Amino acid sequence: MLKKLVAVIAVLALLLALPALLSESMLNASVQMLIAALFATAFALLCGQAGMLSFGHAAYFGLGAFATVHAMNAFGGDGLLPTPLMPLAGAAIGLISGLGAGYFSTQRTGTYFAMITLALAELLHALAPHLKEVFGGEAGISSFRMPAWGFEFGSTIEIYYLVLGWTVLCIALLWGLTLTPFGRLVLGLRENSHRLKFLGYNTHALGTFVFALSAAFAGVAGALQALNIEAANYVVLETQVSTAVLLNTFIGGAKVFFGPAIGAAAMTFFGHVTSDLTRSWLLYQGIIFMLVMMYLPRGIVGEILARFRGEGGAVNPVAVLARFAGILVAAAGFVMAIELTQRFFSTDYKAARQAGGWPAVEFAGHMWAPFAPLTWALPIVLIAAGLGLVTFINRREARRQEAQI
Amino acid sequence: MSRDILVLDHLCKSFGPVEVTRDVNLVIREGERHALIGPNGAGKSTLFHLISGNYKPTSGSIRLDGDEIGGLDPARVNRRGLARSFQITNIFSGLSVAENLRLAVMRRYGLQFNFWRRVTHLRRVNAEVDDLLQKIRLTAKARSIAGDLPYSDQRSLEIGMTLASDPKVILLDEPMAGMSHEETEYTTDLIRDITAGRTLMIVEHDMDVIFTLADRITVLVYGEIIATGTPQQIRESARVKEAYLGEEAG
């Protein structure tokens, strides 16, 4: 208990100190990481705790964003709804739309539930461009953050603290919820809703309400994004937003409370860094998701916690480091192969070939010719060496464990 | 003479053209242990599903303590005071044993939409959970994950959860299915213990269990009741012998 408290305080202190430590661009990335973390935690209430996989959470995130921009324009950041309280508009629209959508979708479970959430979100996404008054068409709608409570809300630092405050508050509320009777019933809903019914509970009302709460907190995340970029465009309603939160949640670990937040923050950071470096960053994101699902099915945080609890035997730190090194070497090989392939098949390369011949391309500070043996031999050797090392360590560890038994 | 707690009146259920329950009339008296037996496919489970709200009757009525419950959904039937267990273990496998019982107890305290109290601080609920744990003899395993328990312990937990809503009538659907001889004896003993002073309706194939546990027995064949009586009467009934012999010959 004390350890947990110390960890929470340490993380909070670090988050509070970040603006002093980071550049403007990294602070911007941090704002996005916080928003993604809140969105994923809200999503995981439904998907991880209640066991209902939604494919349409972009709808509630997006509605929260649009409601906030409208509220910003309507109130001018003053009066009833000053700028710092704007996310309440997102929460309200999320709650209301979540009650409606939840009422219908929770009448079914599993695949059918997922299909209904997907259909509702796609319906909204298809409808949005036609409702110019509400969603602003192609251009979207924009607004300005107005000063309130003695803050300008002009600088990144101020918006960072605003987003941090809301994210911490909302995640704390969601954590508190897991300790209440309702929070425990939500787990029961995931484990066995049929049994819950025969214990006298109204499972449909329970499902509708947990859906609405998840949507409300997703709405707050959308509101924070709208506050951050001072605009909303119907691309926030796209399927990609729904899938990104889903992938983030599972990469972190849907069933552990802080897993989704950490997964989302990590993947947002990864996107921020890699999207400047390579055009293939979405491919890497997909590969990471596949590898996590195959080898760490409980998510990164879930698996780490399981190891700490002592599942899967004692951890040998040397073996862990060696495996990690092996994975890094193999990853370097994969990245090189993918990047070179991407370059050789790009339109730029096609244009360069107009001049004749097969020119070399640049990667990692060197030039690589398409038909030079080293160009392809190096990645292959790296991949083989890395995977070989991991396999070797795995076998040695397996033998050691056998010997102990 | 005790009162009639559960009354089935001309109860019928058909699935399409197939009549599974045919004109069942049965009176369960308060405080009795009533066993339902019959060959496979006689409609015992269907009858339980009808009473517990899983199926809606095609016609006829089911009265619990004077109130009509036929056609109500399972949650409402439970709240009227009738709880059931299932033939296939039906628990919250991923949660702890105590948590399973707590979910079962909480309903009676109206704690479905409660966002402000901590479950660990619900004194009366948790006291009841401790009491139930003792009754089903799982106190030592309170914090184990239910799905990791041995089979017979899971069955005990299932019975404990059925008991948790403090029902007027308990339905147990084959609580000893798949148990070894020792486990069956243990569970029979447990059921006798915890249903003292309550009304029990039980479906079970093990005749030794039935004849030691039941006050009265009803025999169901092809959806119809062919006999109801004390174990002694049932043992001597010619119709019952015929039905069971017919089953063995066929």
UniProtKB/TrEMBL annotation, chain A:
Top-rank taxon, per record: Bacteria
InterPro entries, per the entry: ABC_transp_permease (IPR001851), LivM-like (IPR043428)
Transmembrane segments: 29-48, 55-73, 85-104, 159-182, 203-225, 281-297, 318-338, 374-393
Membrane topology annotation: Multi-pass membrane protein
Keyword Kinase: no
Pfam family, one: BPD_transp_2
GO CC annotation terms, alphabetical: plasma membrane
Database matches in PANTHER family: ABC TRANSPORTER ATP-BINDING PROTEIN (PTHR30482:SF17), HIGH-AFFINITY BRANCHED-CHAIN AMINO ACID TRANSPORT SYSTEM PERMEASE (PTHR30482)
Organism field: Paenirhodobacter populi
Protein's recorded name: Branched-chain amino acid ABC transporter permease
An annotated Gene Ontology molecular function: branched-chain amino acid transmembrane transporter activity
Subcellular location: Cell membrane
Main location: membrane
Keywords: Cell membrane, Membrane, Transmembrane, Transmembrane helix
Automatic annotation (TrEMBL), chain B:
Keywords: ATP-binding, Nucleotide-binding, Transport
CDD domains: ABC_Mj1267_LivG_branched
Boundaries of every ABC transporter domain copy: 6-247
GO CC annotation, single: plasma membrane
InterPro entries per the UniProt record, alphabetical: AAA+_ATPase, ABC_AA/LPS_Transport, ABC_transporter-like_ATP-bd, BCA_ABC_TP_C, P-loop_NTPase
Keyword Transferase part of the UniProt annotation: no
UniProt organism field: Paenirhodobacter populi
GO molecular function, one term: ATP hydrolysis activity
Coiled coil regions, renumbered to chain: none
Protein name: ABC transporter ATP-binding protein
Superkingdom assignment: Bacteria
